[in-house]
Amino acid sequence: MQKYLLSRLLQAVLILFGVLVLVFFMVRIAGDPVNLMVPREASEEYREEFRNMMGFNRPLLVQLADFMGGALVGDFGNSLHFKEPAMPMVVHRLPATLELAGAGMIMAIVVAIPLGLIGGFRPGTWIDSLGRFLGLLGQSTPSFWLALLMIFFFAVDLGWFPSFGRDSIKSIILPGFVMGFGGMGALVRLTRSATMEIRGEDYIRTARSKGLLPKTIYIKHVLRNVLIPLVSVIGVSFGYSLGGSIYIETIFAWPGMGQLVQQAIGWRDYPLIQAIAVFTSVVVVLMSLLTDVAYAFIDPRIRYND
Questions:
Q1: pLDDT by residue (tens digit) across 11-29?
Q2: How far is CA 85 from CA 45, 66, 78, 89, 242, in A?
């Protein structure tokens, strides 16, 4: 168990180091970064002043060392547009994205796991057909198209929910559903396939021969083993969701990190883009690490092999 966790922790550190290097060269690989950050009509004097202010005239290794040192303490400089420290702005947007990603994941889990369990135990029934249909629909429907469709029917036509903003609990229903719809499709298919594989195992037949209730078999024997592959998918999917969906947050005017990414790209605010990229990568790596830890507690074979 300890060796397993230490190896995953070492992998996470190496991945974060690689991410920092990639983010550093992100604005330099296309040439002079000053040309990307300042307006085209800017004078040569302004370009030179901006280059000195950003430190682009120093040796590349010195710039890399300063960037790494600043990244360790969360200092990525000031936003070119807002004139404020970049990382606090990103952290300020985290609760909104966390709220949206959590709502989407909860909706996906509540619908997907029961449908997948029932469909896997009773293939060919109408519930199984419904689950397979939703799984296919969830994985093939573009999120931006679904978002516009939800706004048209439930916000504009019926007036049940607001079409944008983060004002009340009703504001999260539509973007949360759109955020979780794709993940729901993947979870339904994964749960169904895992259940169909597990229901043929010897210990399931033994539990049935003992006369255990189907509810007990579902919860104690099937669900626990189905959780092993599901934990990995849910953890990684939630980590990527925290990065923010640009389309969903932009369409619904949701004040999260996804909307901030769209704004930073439009403003060519590269210090802010770097802060967002590094913060999102850290969140994804941490979620993957927590997923590995949860996987080790769920699956006793990992503890045994250690």
A1: 888 888 888 888 888 777 7
A2: 25, 16, 4, 7, 21
